[in-house]
Amino acid sequence: MSEHLHTALRLASSGLPVLPLREGKVPFGNCPACAQNACGGRPNMKTPGPCTCPQPCHGWAAATTDPVVLRSRGWARVWREAAAVAYHPGGADLTVVDLDNAAAIAWARANLPATRTAPTTRGEHWLYRGAMPSSNAVRPGIDIKSLAAYVRWLGPGVGATAALPDAVRALAVKEPSPARRAPQALTVSLGGGQAQCPHRTPVYLDRGIAMAVQRITEAREAVHATVYRAFLAVLSTHGRCGCLTETHVARLFTAAQAKGETARHCTDAWTNAQTRLGL
């Protein structure tokens, strides 16, 4: 048994979903049966695990706690070639704040609650109890790894694991770029020549955003299509009057990323919806 497989089995027995990494801290690529996501991927992005093909694929989603899978014939070659072991933090209800340099560590010590830490080559991993959407470059030298992400195993670390604080969740809520927001120039002119959008009411606008967020959150399959339809519905009602703000769009993007969508997928879906509506 290889050293990496031994480590993976030990971690899996403690409830940590694991996967092998090849040189360069990169997961093994899709198998031929699942190349270019031909198998349809995994609709519930909060649940990691291997697909039905005979070897690891889908990167982070290949992570598993099943010792039978880890020891299976399909994984044998991969473990022989593996250079390291990784784990899926979101699958174990964990969030890792990846601090890539001394400045990032200093910022975390001044602004985040103390928690379990593990040293890395250039910085530290801070582990919190609780899962959230992953997000890269939330601050200079700081990434967040949780759902739909993997982290190289660097040892158990030291200290008690604290509950995921709001300060970390807030890091992932970025102001959308101009490409993500609806055009703001067009407004409805009211009496007295004052430009004011009639949708700027808690009852109408906020309810529409909440309904779209709920639709995305409750999706159990076809997440890509559900996100696109939700964006299209919001834009068809509010996209021409200028009532949407970056805060509203951020709520939609956060809900989509919590279902496993990447920031790129969100941006593409938003842009495609705008194009279809001629915005």
Strand/helix succession: HEEHHEEHEEEEEEHHHHH
User: Regions with pLDDT < 50 over 5+ consecutive residues?
Assistant: 42-50, 175-196
| Relative strand content | 5-15%
* DSSP strand tally: 10
Rg (CA only): 21 Å
Question: Helix content range of the residues, please?
Answer: 25-40%
Quaternary assembly:
single chain
Structural class: alpha+beta
Rounded mean pLDDT score:
79
Please outline the helices and strands.
Blueprint: H1 3-13, E1 18-22, E2 26-27, H2 67-70, H3 73-81, E3 84-87, E4 94-99, H4 102-111, E5 116-119, E6 124-129, E7 135-139, E8 142-145, E9 151-152, E10 162-163, H5 166-171, H6 202-217, H7 223-238, H8 246-258, H9 263-277
Parallel strand pairs: 6-10
Antiparallel strand pairs: 1-2, 1-3, 3-9, 4-6, 4-8, 5-6, 7-8
Descriptive report:
With 279 residues, the protein is of the alpha+beta class. The chain contains 9 helices and 10 strands. The protein has helices at residues 3-13, 67-70, 73-81, 102-111, 166-171, 202-217, 223-238, 246-258, 263-277; strands spanning 18-22, 26-27, 84-87, 94-99, 116-119, 124-129, 135-139, 142-145, 151-152, 162-163. The strands form 2 sheets. Strands 4, 5, 6, 7, 8 and 10 form a 6-stranded mixed β-sheet that branches. Helix 6 runs parallel beside helix 8 (246-258) and helix 7 crosses helix 9 (263-277). It is globular and about 60 Å long. Residues 42-50 and 175-196 have low confidence and may be disordered.
